[in-house]
Amino acid sequence: MTTTPSVNRTAPKPWQWLVLALGLCLLLFVLVAEVIAPAVRESSTPSVPPAAAPDTALVQRGAYLARLGNCAQCHTARGGADYAGGNALLTPFGRVYPGNLTPHPTTGLGAWSAADFRRAMHQGIRPDGRVLNPAFPYTSYTRITQSDSDALFAFLRSLPAVDAPHRAHELPWPLGTQTALTAWRWLHFSEAPDSPGITEADTGPSARRGAALVQGLGHCAECHTPRNRLGGLRSSQAWSGALMPDGLWYAPALNDNTEAGVAGWDTADIATLLTHGQRRQAYVAGPMAEVVRNSTQYLNAADAESIALYLQTLAPATPAAVKSPAIADTTPSSPLGAKIYENQCAQCHGKQGEGVADAYPALAGNRSVLMGNTNNLTLTVLRGGYGPSTSGKPQPHGMPPYQLSLSDAEVAAVLSFIRKSWGNAAAPVTEFDINKIRNSPIR
Ligand code: HEC
Ligand code: HEC
Ligand code: HEC
């Protein structure tokens, strides 16, 4: 027996109405979910940028945290779009390129969920399971809390999506391989335990909060703690000072008051150094000037004070080992150095190396001048120096570069002179020391 189609073309039966109604409800529900709950679907529909206004308070907190973590420093190329990928980072093993953090669906983080992002920050692992190169300082960022990670991610999602593909790292085989990275992690990386959010746990400024900021998002150890041959941080020598990977700038010891330790300082002075870039004799320079320019100048008062309180705990609070300028102790180390100083430097730094308050650093009794490592002095004289422009110090004075006007022997002579005058008593600098830095291919 055959069923005639006409039978089915009669008026719908009640159960068919029910199916239709349910279908419509479902459709309506999907539409509503599209409009009112885009956040819920964030991870499953990456190509749709957040349409509804994201939680502005969360985004603002994320923007603040991005500055604290100085993400833009590495993830923004010179002249490029913000956070769309950075210039090559020189590591002792090769060049590594920081990728695109904007929400572009294919070249950025558009397809990532908040959980994916947290995993990258906390464990250094991408959503596709690949482990990340530790030139991305997740060795410090691992301390990030869930809520800070979510705020940072919300901020990054709020950026305009930029189509900027990753550049391939330039690492000799097998250094960039997943096997090598996995081995490295096994030796040098430990995931931080989940900590209660520092932001929530501490109400006022505290050394504990400062520790979380310095060791976590601030990633200060990445420069101020020495590394072993494989590039792992030597935790047993934490904060004891290190040459930067380019072999040029020296990040002085934060646990030694004759280098960058601030144990004897007022908390307010330390906070000012971090937010304005200069305080008393300390004038930040080189990579630290970048840190102040892009990151620490934006610290709010409570966070700056917290960091100051923590930094004070790093070195024993002995009376500052820095000597005050002796009255007339000017036995010059060489007549050449004295002559250059008189002609080229004294107009700013003073006849007795006394400097000018809030403008030119004193060189007499200045620990940066007396430090064992003389790279920073040499770089300052060869390349000149400008402090970071900050809201507290918008137009810092600068120092001209001398690489064209002074020879290696002359730079060595003037530096040896300032290290031995006005009560200063540090070892001389050799022509060879200057030559090494002048001829470095790295700018
Ligand atoms: C010192 C430089 C540096 C800083 C500072 C830095 N990053 Fe990176 N980041 C890198 C490098 C290099 C990579 C590439 C690592 C790789 O591909 O193995 C990277 C990769 C990433 C990735 C993985 C991207 C991808 O598609 O694989 C994320 C996410 C990330 N960074 C987020 C951040 C955030 C958020 C901050 C600020 C809190 C930050 N980074 C600060 C250097 C840096
Ligand atoms: C990119 C590398 C880098 C990072 C990250 C970094 N520093 Fe530095 N820091 C340096 C270098 C290089 C110097 C030496 C130049 C100078 O004296 O300013 C320095 C100097 C300092 C000084 C001494 C300044 C002076 O002039 O006496 C202090 C204090 C300091 N850093 C604190 C910090 C703190 C706190 C952090 C984390 C928020 C930090 N640094 C992160 C590289 C870095
Ligand atoms: C036009 C004024 C000017 C002249 C001339 C000048 N300097 Fe400077 N010097 C400065 C300023 C400003 C700074 C701080 C730079 C900074 O913040 O990075 C500085 C920094 C320094 C530092 C680093 C001090 C520290 O605390 O980190 C040394 C060393 C130094 N100068 C030596 C010299 C020598 C040697 C000469 C002569 C060959 C010289 N300067 C000429 C203005 C000058």
UniProtKB/TrEMBL annotation:
Domain Cytochrome c: 57-160, 205-315, 332-422
InterPro entries assigned to the protein according to its UniProt record, in alphabetical order: Cyt_c-like_dom, Cyt_c-like_dom_sf, Cytochrome_c-type_DH, Membr-bd_ADH_cyt_c
SUPFAM superfamilies listed in its UniProt record: Cytochrome c
Keyword terms, alphabetized: Heme, Iron, Metal-binding
Top-level taxon of origin: Bacteria
Pfam families xref list: Cytochrom_C (PF00034)
Protein name: C-type cytochrome
Organism this protein belongs to: Rhodoferax potami
